[in-house]
Amino acid sequence: QKEVEQDPGPLSVPEGAIVSLNCTYSNSAFQYFMWYRQYSRKGPELLMYTYSSGNKEDGRFTAQVDKSSKYISLFIRDSQPSDSATYLCAIWGSQGNLIFGKGTKLSVKP
Amino acid sequence: NAGVTQTPKFQVLKTGQSMTLQCAQDMNHNSMYWYRQDPGMGLRLIYYSASEGTTDKGEVPNGYNVSRLNKREFSLRLESAAPSQTSVYFCASGATGYTFGSGTRLTVV
Hints:
Chain A is 0% helix and 56% strand. By secondary structure, chain A is mainly β. In chain A, the strands form two sheets. In chain A, strands 2, 4, 5, 9, 10 and 11 form a six-stranded mixed beta sheet that branches. In chain A, strands 1-3-8-7-6 form a five-stranded antiparallel beta sheet, with no helix packed on it. Chain A is globular. With 109 residues, chain B is mostly beta strands. Chain B has strands at 4-7, 10-13, 19-25, 32-38, 42-49, 56-57, 64-68, 74-78, 87-93, 99-100, 104-108. Chain B contains no helices and eleven strands. The model of chain B has no long low-confidence stretch (mean pLDDT 95). The A-B interface holds A 6, 8, 32, 34, 41-46, 49, 88, 92, 96-98, 100-103 and B 4, 33, 40-43, 45, 48, 50, 58, 90, 92, 96-103.
């Protein structure tokens, strides 16, 4: 089993929709969870960062960690065409480095 | 406020040629990383350097070498390029949340 699994999509939604992006992970000891956004032909940029379990909100974005299910989520409210990008979850792994999911490509249609 | 700077942005190599990808950061980070990104494979760690003078292998180190020249610079060398090394290469730096460069698109023909 891979340490981090993420559905690659693609995911297409209309403008204004609520988007839910998800990852599962294998090691219950993981504590640091991150979401990166990557626009086409650009490097990934850190979007949100959570420690342990619970929710963290930043504007239209909410990151959620459910440690009992080993499940992390990113919710985007009132999605905009400018949110169209690939979203990568990342977890601080047992080797002391970030382990990335494969990314979910999101398209928000006007 | 450059962050992480990678050069070159694009490169085409013939099989067997060598090249060095350069990376520099101006954020005073101790740790630096080299990743490759391929369709369907995600970001895979090639090598990393936890501090000046140290380097360690990541998930896919074969065919690559690295040099941590100083705290700012971390280079990745392909000694004899192969078509399987066609990829987008990203350098990153940071402790928990990484800052990435804009990438080098490498094609080996």
